[in-house]
Amino acid sequence: MLVTDLNLSDGSWVIDFGGFRGDWTAAILERYRTKVLVVEPVPDFANQASERFRNRSNVQVLNFLIGRSEGLRKVYLDEDATGYWASGRSVVVEQKPLSQLLSLIGGDSVGVASINIEGGEYELLELLLETSSIGKFETLLIQFHQTVDFSLDRYTKLQLGLSVEHNLTWDYPFVWQRWDKRQQSTPNGQGSKILGKK
């Protein structure tokens, strides 16, 4: 479901936030001829992804995370649950500003972005909304997490912010959501489905 029915043409940009070892990117490449930016801040995981895609000129692995400014952040290792609130050993990773990532895309739009960054999605999405960069993204696949600092108010504000330019196409609450950029003629929220609830 996370790689099917995506409106991607040859050369479309795809961003894999929290790329880990590149599993989702690999699944995308099996179906589409896209250009992929894999954003993975943990050096060990980024190195594994770089090795995996070493013969793919259309894939670039970026060994940093995205924030408001350049600097260093501490994350905690726990395989694919690595993040700010994981329970493993800590590692210091690089943070780069959003502008550095978007400069790689230029004036193009992003066909699809997968955001699975273990609680870091709140800060990233807030940044995309604050900078009005969210409009560059045609489809957003987002995994929201209920981390130790989870705030329903913060989550609700993000949902409202996303709905300004995108429709919630389907929703497995706190599993995955899909948001698609709304066409001018499409009413706000039309076609959204909440799934996974009885």
Distinctive features:
198 residues; alpha/beta; Rossmann fold; three-stranded mixed β-sheet; 5 helices
Helix residue percentage: 10-25%
Report the CATH superfamily.
Vaccinia Virus protein VP39
Q: Roughly what fraction of the amino acids lie in strands?
A: 25-35%
Number of strands: 10
Q: Radius of gyration, Cα only, in angstroms?
A: 16 Å
Number of discrete domains: 1
H/E element string? EHEHEEEEHEHEHEE
End-to-end distance: 20 Å
User: What's the oligomerization state?
Assistant: single chain
**Poorly predicted tracts of residues:** 185-190
The first-level CATH class is given as: Alpha Beta
| CATH architecture classification name | 3-Layer(aba) Sandwich
The major sheet is characterized as: 7 strands, mixed
User: If you consult CATH, what is the topology?
Assistant: Rossmann fold
State the helix count.
5
The backbone outline, from C-alpha atoms, is globular
Strand order of the largest sheet: 3-2-1-7-8-10-9
* Class per helix and strand makeup: alpha/beta
Mean pLDDT: 88
